[in-house]
Write a structure and sequence with these properties.
mainly alpha
Length: 402
């Protein structure tokens, strides 16, 4: 095995793990003061519960059996038949580090959804949701695209999770908003913009492992994915800042940070498949389209509190469609619309639309089922008091100091 590739994958896995606490800080800073811990624990608990699920059945359902199908089998449940010397299929590093790397994706994906229903959902219902959503939505899409399943057999590409992670989570978030309903108090400003900035920094830093690590090797494509990630995030951040500045007459820090995350989400499906000049255009498109998606959401009254749909859902869909436009055969396995391959463009567009619709529908149905088991939404008194105190009996800050 290649010790350099092994070390790189260990680093990439560590970076992706860092994104989960980064997301907790990002959401925790955006939440109201009475709901900081309530949203952060929903993110952090995924580190534990998803790991249990992944080792028990998740990895096997995603990456064993079921070639050309929707879901795998339980042949590798509890990683049986493998040990620390078992190589990954490319022979460059142990299988265990690939298991861990993919596990970090499984941890953060459902946690993305929580920003949509901040301070409205009971913790017990969320735990059931976390389990069911992975089994019925996340695992099937991982298998279908990255595990040699149905969409892979159609020629669908997704470098690091435009469909698997962002489109599914973003549209699941929208379904959650529709089912749970709006907050009683929508006028809850971020409690700590510096905390949002720390979270964004950790997400941005971790995203290098998210995208560059998805090459599963150390080569030129790895460096391209790394640079494309930074370039798209930067152009999206500046684009969002300029639009918001021109409209409000003030440069907004939260807008700059949100734009960067939108760019990161949008470049994800094509990071290792498109040239650098395309990453610039993708970043600008992310800043424009995601900004106006959030504006549309606000105007129509959807209470997606932390803009999960507008940033991750729309970003994931947009990035997948633009992969169909800008994919280059000089970089990846196929070309896109710019190089004359309209078929690939149409397949990517159809796949991401189907994926988003599936995630939306199954999430809505899932919440109906969960609500029959235990209430999904907190009571009015619990919501008014805040989830930190009413559900968890803790407070983020000492009220005698702040």
């Amino acid at each position: 095995m290649d010790s350099g590739a092994t070390a790189f994958m260990i680093l990439a896995t560590s970076l992706v793990m860092l994104m989960t606490p980064g997301l907790a800080f990002f959401y925790g800073g955006l939440a109201s003061r009475r709901n900081i811990l309530g949203i952060m624990i929903q993110t952090f608990v995924s580190l534990g519960l998803t790991t249990v699920m992944w080792v028990a059945v998740g990895y096997s359902l995603c990456f064993s059996g079921g070639e050309g199908g929707i879901i795998g089998n339980l042949e590798l449940a509890f990683l049986r038949g493998t040990d620390f010397n078992t190589p990954f299929s490319n022979g460059k590093f142990p299988l265990y580090i690939f298991v861990a790397y993919q596990m970090m994706f499984a941890i953060i994906t459902p946690a993305l959804i929580t920003g949509a229903f901040v301070n409205r959902v009971t913790f017990k219902a969320y735990l059931i949701f976390l389990v069911m959503w992975q089994l019925l939505v996340y695992y099937p899409f991982v298998h279908m695209i990255w595990g040699g399943g149905l969409l892979a057999s159609w020629g669908i590409l997704d470098f690091a999770g435009g469909i698997v992670v962002h489109a599914t989570a973003g549209f699941a978030a929208l379904a959650s908003v529709f089912y749970v309903g709006p907050r009683r108090d929508k006028a809850s400003p971020p409690n700590s913009i510096p905390l949002v900035a720390i979270g964004t920094g950790l997400l941005w830093f971790g995203w290098y492992g998210f995208n560059a690590g998805s090459q599963l090797n150390v080569d030129g494509i790895t460096t391209l994915a790394f640079l494309n990630t930074d370039v798209a995030a930067s152009f999206a951040a500046v684009t969002w800042l300029v639009i918001e500045w021109s409209r409000s007459r003030k440069p907004k820090f939260v807008g700059l940070l949100t734009g960067a995350v939108a760019g990161l989400a949008t470049i994800t499906p094509g990071a290792g498949f498109v040239p650098l000049w395309a990453a610039i255009l993708i970043g600008i498109a992310a800043g424009l389209v995601c900004y106006y998606a959030v504006e549309f959401k606000n105007r129509i009254g959807w209470d997606d509190a932390l803009d999960v749909w507008g940033v991750h859902g729309v970003g994931g869909v947009l990035g997948t469609i633009l992969l169909g436009v800008f994919a280059s055969s000089a970089i990846g396995p196929t070309s896109g619309l710019v190089e004359g391959n309209a078929g690939f463009f149409l397949k990517e567009t159809l796949a991401v639309v189907i994926s988003a619709a599936y995630a939306f529908l199954f999430t809505y149905l899932m919440l109906i089922i969960i609500n029959a088991i235990t209430p999904v939404r907190v009571s009015e008194s619990e919501e008014d008091l805040g989830l930190d105190d009413s559900l968890h009996g803790e407070n983020a800050y000492d009220t005698g100091v702040l």
